[in-house]
Design brief:
The chain has 2 domains: 49 residues, Arc Repressor Mutant, subunit A, CATH 1.10.10; 143 residues, Tetracycline Repressor, domain 2. The protein has 9 helices and no strands. Helix 4 packs parallel to helix 7 and helix 7 packs across helix 8. Helices cover 76% and strands 0% of the residues. The N and C termini lie far apart (57 Å).
């Protein structure tokens, strides 16, 4: 029971931090703001985190775990062919924004821009996060190539990194335009021009 309580309070603080950082930025958010949002006393923060940077690092790791679970759930579902797993994964991105709003953001891209040149440990953690997501995507692309579902025979790791990086930029454009169209166009482009899906006929 004690371990469950510890985990619960820690997760509440991390969730509050994620909300605060996505609404503003990592450096613009003070601990008081995060703890007020979490509804926990300041002393509780230092029970779970050594410093704000330690909190930031754990937030990155927590977000990475969530992203990896999402990626693996869609991209390793063997009830679908590799190309359909890829389609499900990217179409879910569109559905997510339509259901949660076009201004919905993730803390990781913001933290990447803010901390990558200032904190080497955080930069490394964020790099691992992006690399791990690209790795799962690359494996599915590789399987689609082996299954002869796509014409593109370029290196799967290169394709996954390129698509993943471009996706981050497209998500920014969605928020700027307040329109889902850029993401819809990009997802269509992935299959027609980048991966070059083969006709089923």
């Amino acid at each position: 029971m004690a371990n469950e309580a510890v985990k619960g309070t820690r997760d509440i603080i991390l969730e509050a931090g994620h909300k605060a950082i996505t609404a503003k930025s990592y450096h613009a958010c003070g601990l008081k703001e995060i703890l007020d949002l979490a509804g926990v006393p300041k002393g509780s923060f230092y029970h779970y985190f050594k410093s704000k940077d330690d909190f930031g690092l754990q937030l990155i790791e927590n977000s990475t775990d969530g992203w990896n679970q999402e990626c693996r759930a869609k991209l390793t579902d063997r009830t679908y062919s590799p190309i359909n797993r890829l389609k499900n994964y990217f179409n879910d991105k569109i559905t997510y924004f339509l259901e949660h709003g076009l201004s919905c953001e993730c803390a990781l891209p913001k933290m990447a821009l803010e901390t990558s040149q200032l904190n080497e440990v955080m930069r490394g953690a964020i790099k691992y996060s992006f690399d791990s997501m690209a790795s799962v995507l690359a494996q599915t692309i590789r399987e689609a190539q082996v299954a002869d579902e796509i014409n593109c025979k370029d290196d799967a790791d290169m394709l996954a990194n390129m698509i993943n990086s471009a996706l981050q930029g497209i998500i920014i454009r969605v928020q700027i335009d307040q329109s889902i169209v850029p993401l819809e166009q990009f997802v269509a482009l992935i299959f027609t021009n980048i991966l070059q899906e083969k006709s089923s006929s």
